[in-house]
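INTERNAL AUDIT FORM
Audit reference: QA-55
Scope: verify that the stored structure record matches its stored sequence.
Auditor: D.O.
Record contents follow.
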Amino acid sequence: MSSLACPTWTLGRVAAAARDMGYLGVELASFGFGTSPLACEPAHTCPHKTLTTFDETGVAVSSIATTLRYDAPVRPPVLGLALSDLEGPVRQGKRMIDLAADMGCPLVRVLGMHKQPRERLATCARRIAKRLFEVVDHSRNTTVRVCIENAGSFPTARSLEPIIEQADLQGL
């Protein structure tokens, strides 16, 4: 069950509904620590409270599904490194790993996403892997693993192989 299907429900209602429908676990959708359209946004609630809410119903938080993506290009070239906040998603990813660890949640899902027009897929994969490396590395001393969703320019598991190989970490 995914909380994305019930964005107006509270975390308590999601947990109770999952129990009543016979689910063993729930994927909590998250738009991060800023504004979110979800009433059941896990980043806006104390992790201990979320853990207690789900423990009381016997339903596990199986993953946190984020909207984080690591494909942003450097624009303008070189100067964009100083002008853009390309590390923002990396910081958010690390915070999501900490949140998941505090809730006893084993997985954080992120997105690969899109290459730029006229860009080689391998170039985009290197850019994503470089940023994703930092996020996955942050999870190494936790029980949390990072999952990358096949989507956009990386529609299959096989198309994600270059990112996974370049990130070269056990936590992905």
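Auditor finding: record pair retrieved intact. The domain at 3-167 is CATH 3.20.20.150 (TIM Barrel).
Action required: none
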